[in-house]
Automatic annotation (TrEMBL):
Leader sequence segment: none
The organism of origin for this protein: Mucilaginibacter ginsenosidivorax
Protein name: RagB/SusD family nutrient uptake outer membrane protein
A single cellular component GO annotation: cell outer membrane
Residues annotated as domain SusD-like N-terminal: 114-232
Span of domain RagB/SusD: 359-637
Cell membrane among keywords: no
Primary localization: membrane
Gene3D superfamilies reported for this sequence: 1.25.40.390
Pfam families, A to Z: SusD-like_3 (PF14322), SusD_RagB (PF07980)
Length: 637
């Protein structure tokens, strides 16, 4: 499996239009590397793609902090290496993080992290030498400079979300720099934010609004991407983790410089809101709109409306980028982890070791999704929350969601379309896997080790009984072998911007009527009534949306549902300072080894997370503090 993923990563670089020739491999003897790298346009373009190359690692979910620490996925602790997944990142919520040897160390580039400062240095080298290629046109030069400035900003942003205050590396130090010059200090949070925003403001005007030559350039940075990332940066800076957070008042440079402001600044939400609206407007002007499923020619035309609805939700993630109208930015590297995200559905696949299905969704995550009335399951007046774990049998009325005649729990009935599109569960219908008959679709059978999808050995096991179905393309087929229908994992899509803009408006204290407009765009696509209609008619708290705090709760839950499993929830929960609350509860799954419904549907605790205030920020490795005595450590590390 390791070899397979290594090969897949190499292929992704080729697909991303990167020339197979790398300048470091072809430099003749006695020729300066930098001079050779920028001797002409083609070699300089190769170096440009080197600046892009570290983005590709973000396609690996086990190294994405927003994915592994979000409470959305449990990975079995004893499967490290056996299934091709490094469990270092998944184990962080088990309390394994250490300042002696940090996991997912993006500062130094080890333990699953990448050397992000190296990526920044490569960007600086590109900018320092961009004038050397004599055959580079002025127009291309402007565009390349803009792309590299964006990449510099994004690499700083990735570090910023992990460490908060970081050194700003605007220029490379000369090779003869003194020891003291090398020992750079951390810059205050506000300075880092201002620096990233300045780079993006400089870059955006010279970036193309759309990619015209998609065959060769899809994945390169556009103006909508730059503006969307600017909105993310400013919303992060305005959020409670960084805006007036008293927890970090003691973190200062050794000269006494305060690194985290403990004074709340409401104007930061004003900047974030303006940036969101700007990003939305530019995206929409350039043809970006919420995705809608259009059946390909090989799919039956007699799909039910409910099935079209589910496939619209699923394919908003897995549709190819060149035809997915919603994607603002996705990574060129294909998401190679579909075998970890889906259940086995046929007798042949049950005997196949190549589909482990080990990404397990805890019960708490599935309970986050709304009822079919569009409100939380514990608020819906008509939904039997107290008896949700009682056994119920699939019937004709629910045949497009649950196997007819199959025993499951009441919690799986009368849920919103995103629940059925995003999560696979025991008894849940799975449209696809080569079976496109709406009335004869597969359904998941997961009770006990004799069932198709149940645990087979110490490698092929899903410990909760839930799978992140959203991350499997419905065209992917798994039987005696498997055929993967690849897709690009989104980093930003329009629904994300709509919800982010709604959040910024609410934090500004705007009237709810102007806010729910953007929430309702996303909810309507998901087949739900608008916020006001849903809460007024179906919630036990009918006026929740009319208060800033109530609407904040609605917005946060809406983001966690809409963006589930996309590597976003972990970042959101951090910036909201809600991750400690979420991880204060044990993560549970069903009793997956049991074969009867009565015994199977008994929640069991699989993991009791360890998360404290200090875990909101990553530790700087202790060795770095020794080698650079101008650095100071984050809180309580």
């Amino acid at each position: 499996m390791k070899i397979y993923y290594k090969y897949l990563f190499m292929v992704s670089l080729i697909v991303s239009c990167i020339s197979c020739k790398k300048y470091l491999d072809v430099t003749p003897d006695n020729v300066g590397t930098i001079d050779y790298a920028f001797r002409n346009r083609n070699e300089a373009e190769n170096y440009l793609f080197t600046c892009y190359s570290q983005l590709q690692r973000y396609t690996l979910p086990q190294y994405n902090v927003g994915f592994v620490t979000s409470s959305e996925i449990i990975f079995p602790i004893d499967l490290n290496d056996n299934s091709g997944i490094d469990a270092t990142g998944f184990n962080l919520i088990r309390g394994t993080q250490s300042s002696q040897n940090p996991g997912i160390n993006n500062w130094d580039g080890n333990n699953g992290g990448q050397a992000t400062f190296k990526a920044i240095r490569q960007c600086n080298t590109m900018l320092e030498n961009i004038d050397k290629p004599v055959d580079l046109s002025a127009a291309e030069k402007k565009r390349w400079i803009a792309e590299v400035k964006f990449l510099k900003a994004y690499y700083h942003f990735y570090l910023f979300r992990l460490y908060g205050s970081i050194p700003i590396v605007d220029k490379n130090l000369p090779i003869n720099a003194s020891a003291e010059e090398v020992k750079i200090k951390r810059a205050p949070v506000d300075s880092v934010v201002n620096y990233m925003v300045r780079l993006l403001d400089e870059a955006a005007p010279d970036l193309p609004p759309v990619i015209q030559n998609q065959a060769k350039e899809l994945g390169r940075i556009t103006k909508p991407i730059a503006l969307a990332v600017k909105a993310q940066i400013l919303a992060t800076a305005a959020s409670p983790l960084f805006n007036g957070n008293p927890d970090y008042v003691s973190i200062k440079n050794k000269d006494g410089q305060l690194l985290f402001s403990n004074t709340y600044d409401a104007s930061k939400w004003d900047k974030a809101s303006a940036a969101c609206l700007d990003a939305i407007n530019v995206a929409e002007i350039n043809g970006i709109k919420l995705h809608k499923f259009n059946p390909p020619a090989n799919i039956p035309s007699n799909l039910t409306d409910s099935l079209k609805e589910l496939l619209t939700i699923q394919t908003a993630i897995t549709e190819k980028w060149d035809v997915n109208t919603e994607l603002i930015w996705a990574l060129n590297g294909n998401f190679g982890y579909q075998p970890h995200c889906g259940p086995r559905l046929t007798s042949k696949s049950a005997a196949n070791i190549t589909f482990p299905g080990t990404f397990a969704v805890p019960i708490s995550e599935q309970e986050l999704f709304y009822t079919d009335k569009g409100v939380p399951i514990n608020e819906d007046k008509s939904w039997d929350y107290l008896n949700r774990y009682d056994i119920r049998t699939g019937d004709a009325a629910n045949r497009f969601y649950i196997g007819k005649g199959y025993e499951t729990v009441k919690a799986h009935f009368n849920r919103e379309p995103r629940f059925y599109a995003d999560i696979a569960f025991d008894g849940g219908i799975w449209y696809g896997n080569g079976n496109f008959a709406p009335e004869g679709a597969y359904y998941v059978q997961a009770k006990g080790n004799t069932s198709l999808a149940g645990p087979k050995d110490n490698i092929r096991i899903n410990v909760t009984g839930y799978w992140p179905k959203k991350l499997v393309n419905y065209l992917t087929v798994h039987d005696d072998g498997y055929t993967i229908e690849d897709y690009h994992m989104p980093l930003v899509r329009l629904a994300d911007l709509y919800l982010l803009y709604a959040e910024t408006l609410n934090e500004q204290g705007k009237p709810y009527a102007s806010i729910v407009t953007y929430l309702d765009k996303v909810r309507q696509r998901a087949g739900l009534p608008g916020v006001v209609e849903a809460w007024t008619n179906y919630s036990k708290n009918p006026t929740k949306y009319a208060t800033q705090d109530g609407l904040r709760q609605i917005i946060h839950q809406e983001r966690r549902i809409e963006l589930a499993f996309e590597g976003q929830a972990g970042w959101d929960l951090r910036r909201w300072k809600e991750l400690q609350q979420v991880l204060s509860k044990p993560l549970q799954g069903w009793n997956v080894y049991e074969t009867t419904a009565t015994n199977y549907y008994r929640p069991r605790t699989l993991l009791t997370p360890v998360f404290n205030v200090r875990d909101y920020m990553w530790p700087i490795a202790a060795d770095d503090l020794i080698s650079n005595n101008n650095l100071v450590q984050n809180l309580n590390w």
